[in-house]
Amino acid sequence: MSYQSTTIVGNLGRDPEMRYLPSGQPVTSFSVATSRSYTNNQGTRVEETIWFRVSVFGKMAETCNQYLKKGSKVLVEGRLQADKSGGPRVWTRQDGTPAASFEITANTVRFLSSRGDHAGGGGEEGGGGEFVAPDAGDEIPF
């Protein structure tokens, strides 16, 4: 048996979008930016951001759509989904630089921002909460 799990902590890049599968099951999608900064060998400070596209199903999809907003800090645990090429979704930004987005189907979404705090601060106190999604199987709507 094989198993893989991915855990990320970051901020929503825009408000979540909810829709319904033909079966009637709700699915909410949102993008999460994870960032790190470091100093390279030349002594230059480098900021690195990686984007993840998260899909959440069922009751947790409704809850995420209701409470998360652009800037909300979240912890997401789930399985990494490869695109048809076997890797991340790759595109070119408007400024001509390359970018990639990794797709995650969430099992758990933990709200880390306090209520009303969508600028990335806060912690688990205040409006934090954890929601565990039922297994959505292979029914990915995109």
Descriptive account of the structure:
The relative contact order is 0.23. This protein has one helix and eight strands, in the order E-E-E-E-H-E-E-E-E. A five-stranded mixed β-barrel has the order 1-3-4-7-5. The longest helix has 10 residues, at 58-67. The chain is mainly beta and 142 residues long. The chain has a single domain (6-132), classed as OB fold (Dihydrolipoamide Acetyltransferase, E2P). It has one helix at 58-67, and strands at residues 6-12, 17-20, 26-39, 45-57, 73-81, 89-92, 98-111, 129-132. It is globular and about 55 Å long. Helix content is 7%, strand content 49%.
Name the CATH class.
Mainly Beta
- Total discrete domains: 1
Strand order of the largest sheet: 1-3-4-7-5
Which CATH-level-2 architecture? Beta Barrel
Order of helices and strands: EEEEHEEEE
Give the N-terminus to C-terminus distance in angstroms: 27 Å
User: Can you give the mean pLDDT?
Assistant: 83
Tally of contiguous helical segments: 1
Beta-strand content: over 45%
Molecular shape: globular
Q: Assign a percent range to the helix content.
A: under 10%
Taking the sheet with the most strands, its summary is: 5 strands, mixed, barrel
- CATH topology call: OB fold (Dihydrolipoamide Acetyltransferase, E2P)
Full CATH superfamily name: Nucleic acid-binding proteins
Number of strands: 8
Q: Rounded to an integer, what's the Rg over CA atoms? A: 16 Å
Contiguous runs where pLDDT drops below 50 for at least 5 residues: 119-128, 130-142
Estimated structural class: mainly beta
